[in-house]
Design goal:
four-stranded antiparallel sheet, 23% helix, Mannose-Binding Protein A, Chain A, five-stranded mixed sheet, 3 helices, 9 strands, 165 residues, alpha+beta
Length: 165
């Protein structure tokens, strides 16, 4: 009996460690789901429109979004990419955590993000630093926010944002 209990505890510890490795940390808070639950979540709903240059306009917030289709991006790479983006005249930056939460739409797609975004992952970096060596991000698949080391890249993507021009 004692051996079975020890094996059970060991199995739980392995599952916990595996789960943390998948998420990157135990840190996180439930997302507030500030998307528009009453709005259709398809590209035809009218909330989001995509221009020929790839910029996506959010008609609710007035922000423009642009997706980096490179998967596994570190925060430093994301920051450099957004700052050097020249689509539509430049002025792009990484979004704040509240801006990321505002486009979260539970049930819109497998990653709870409007299909127009076609992001290569469901966990996006924000421009908000947690401390000098880590930054906040948002997991669209779960609605959770969390922080990770600036050089962590596994499954992380970059979205750029700016005020509509």
């Amino acid at each position: 009996m004692g051996r079975q209990v020890c094996l059970g505890i060991l199995a739980l510890m392995i599952l916990l460690a595996w789960g943390c490795a998948q998420d990157g940390s135990l840190q996180g808070r439930a997302g507030e789901g500030q998307g528009q639950p009453g709005v259709q979540t398809t590209a035809l709903s009218g909330r989001f429109t995509k221009a020929s240059n790839g910029a996506i306009t959010d008609t609710v917030t007035g922000l423009e979004w642009y997706v980096n289709h490179q998967p596994d991006t570190t925060w430093r790479q994301a920051q450099a990419w957004a700052g050097s983006l020249t689509v539509g005249g430049g002025g792009w930056r990484l979004p704040t955590l509240p801006e990321l939460k505002a486009i979260y739409q539970k049930g819109a797609s497998a990653v709870n993000l409007d299909p127009l975004f076609q992001a290569p992952g469901a966990w996006a970096w924000s421009g908000d630093l947690h401390n000098p060596w880590s930054a906040w991000g948002f997991a669209f698949y779960s609605g959770l926010e969390g922080w990770h080391h600036l050089d962590y890249a596994g499954g992380r993507v970059a979205l750029a944002v700016r005020s509509r021009r």
